[in-house]
Amino acid sequence: MKSKTLAAVCCVCLIAGLAPAATKAFYVTDELGTDQHLVRMKDLTPAPTGLYVQKCISGTAGADDLAAPTNWGWATSGDAYTNYLPPGVQEYQVGTCRMGDDDAGVAFPILKAGQVSGTIGSSDATRMGWLRTFSSTAIPLSAYYGDTLGATAGRALNNAVDVYQWSADPVVSSVNPAYSIPFIAPPPTQTVNATIAGTVAVGAGNNELPGSILLVEYRDQASNTWQTLQATVNPDGTFTGEVPGPFPRQLYLRARVKDANTPRPGLPVSAEYPVVVPVPEPLATGAMLLAPVASMLRRAL
Question: What is the pTM of this model?
Fold first, then answer.
């Protein structure tokens, strides 16, 4: 009997230890007060309802506070570490908050674009919380993200005070390292004359990257070393470039954001596309013409 009682007490203690010490509402609204705001897109219009809002918790002692997204992600529910975040940084209640939601139940008079609330909690009172809005309905589909900045003291998860007095309107304009850059026209799986071409999705919209910050790279399938095919993608997303020999070559091709334009150099990137480059036609024709001569020389020797 004593052992059962002790086990029960241990379970209660364990549950208590895991329970959030502070769960508080984080929100953005302009309904009341002079220090309240709206989340805005790159063009400064209010963020449309339905955009993905990530409820983020820093590492312990505020480590990696406001850390940029990564491209590691696999959680679909619950509380998750390393869900498009660095190790030690957590997404609270994955997938439960969207732009326009009153997820924290702070009783917004109306629900509208640019306005959102989310509850964030942690058993570690030294961690910091913040809301991160993406420019689409899923993190890998979003070209940009924006964080609720400022209110540093209030963001600590050590009391139950609502957090809403941000220093400015959060703007969804930072390049998202987790974005999977799409191709409108991928390169062909086999090309001729060593020329590779395709079209990346680019533009000036709130969920589009401009071609000026993109480059296209290739590598041999047996190598991890990437080389530049085209240093800047054209304004309409097209690109073309010629790869050197020796031929034939089996390559992979990708697009990525230039290091100077992203918070995480090397990211975001596209999928990798396989391309086979046969012997270019002029070289192949020359080889055919020289073959009889080579045969005659061999016989003469």
Answer: 0.86
